[in-house]
Design goal:
Layout lengths: L1 H118 L7 H19 L2 E3 L12 E8 L8 E6 L2 E3 L2 E4 L1 E7 L3 H10 L1
Parallel strand pairs: 2-6
Antiparallel strand pairs: 1-4, 3-6, 4-5
Helix pairs in contact: 1-2
């Protein structure tokens, strides 16, 4: 009986020690929990800041890419427009070259033929004159359909936008810089000069020359 009673105090002592150890562990855990919580919160805040910074960076990159895309689209559209204009201008230039080389030259010859016919006494009702004039009028009508018209120059004031002075004629019969004779007809297309009129322009006779002529008479 004495033997069994000796074991009870030792067991009780062990239980007390275990209880104290558990309480110390709980206290330690309670003391460590706020520190660990702060560390977790700090790590979470850092992660949120990194995510926000990354989102901002991605947004800026997106805007830059969109801006570059817009510029690329605009450049492509401008290139397409320029290519279309260049192609159209090339076609027009080729057409004008053909017109200048053949049609205008033919009209110049027809004008000279009509003038020669008049100088040789052929009237406007002469069959030859009428035939030449019919061909000329037909060509002028076809040009007009393409927006090409003759520049009316004789008797007009010289205008460098439409005329090219190839000679000056001293005279006081008309005002200075008046076109007194057309050498080659000029043409416009939709109001733009494509061939300037080659003309003779009036130049006033100096007074000294006029006085000398009068005194000689």
């Amino acid at each position: 009986m004495m033997k069994s009673s000796n074991h009870k105090p030792k067991k009780h002592e062990n239980d007390m020690n275990e209880k104290l150890n558990n309480e110390e562990q709980i206290v330690n855990e309670q003391e460590q929990t706020p520190v660990e919580s702060c560390e977790v919160q700090a790590e979470s805040q850092v992660a949120e800041d990194d995510l926000a910074a990354r989102c901002k960076q991605l947004e800026e990159e997106k805007e830059q890419l969109f801006s570059r895309l817009q510029r690329s689209v605009a450049d492509l559209q401008n290139y397409q427009k320029k290519a279309a204009r260049d192609r159209q201008e090339a076609i027009q230039y080729a057409e004008l070259s053909v017109i200048e080389r053949f049609v205008f030259t033919m009209l110049d010859d027809l004008d000279r033929a009509l003038k020669a016919a008049e100088e040789h006494g052929l009237g406007t009702q002469d069959p030859l004159y009428k035939g030449i004039d019919m061909i000329r009028q037909n060509l002028l009508g076809q040009l007009k359909q393409a927006g090409i018209e003759r520049i009316e120059a004789e008797g007009k004031k010289f205008d460098p936008l439409y005329h090219e002075a190839i000679m000056e004629m001293p005279t006081n019969d008309v005002e200075e810089n008046t076109i007194v004779h057309v050498m080659n007809q000029g043409y416009t297309q939709n109001g733009k000069t494509i061939r300037a009129t080659k003309a003779v322009v009036a130049k006033p006779i100096p007074k000294t020359e006029t006085q000398d002529t009068t005194s000689e008479q």
